Amino acid sequence: MNELLDWIANQGFSIAVAAYLLLRLDSKIDRVIVLLEKLA
Questions:
Q1: CA-to-CA distance for 18 and 23, rounded, in angstroms?
Q2: Sign of torsion, CA 3 8 11 17?
Q3: What's the structural domain count of the chain?
Q4: What pLDDT digit, counting tens, does each position of 6-16 carry?
């Protein structure tokens, strides 16, 4: 039972990190688009 909980905790951490990185990347992409619109 404990191993299952550990596995879920590890997966949850991986998912949280992935989601965080995606959000960071998304905000960077938005900034690049704004910059390109200003230059265009």
A1: 9
A2: negative
A3: 1
A4: 988 889 999 99
Backbone conformation region of residue 22, classed left if phi is above 0, alpha if psi is from -120 to 50, else beta: alpha
The residue type of 13 is F
Compute the Cα dihedral for 21, 23, 26, 32 and give only its sign: negative
Taking the C-alpha atoms of residue 40 and residue 36, their distance in angstroms, rounded to an integer, is: 6
CA dihedral 21, 27, 30, 35 (to 10 degrees): -110
Q: What is the DSSP letter of 40?
A: -
Cut 0.70: pTM above it: no
Tell me which residue range forms the domain holding 33: 1-39
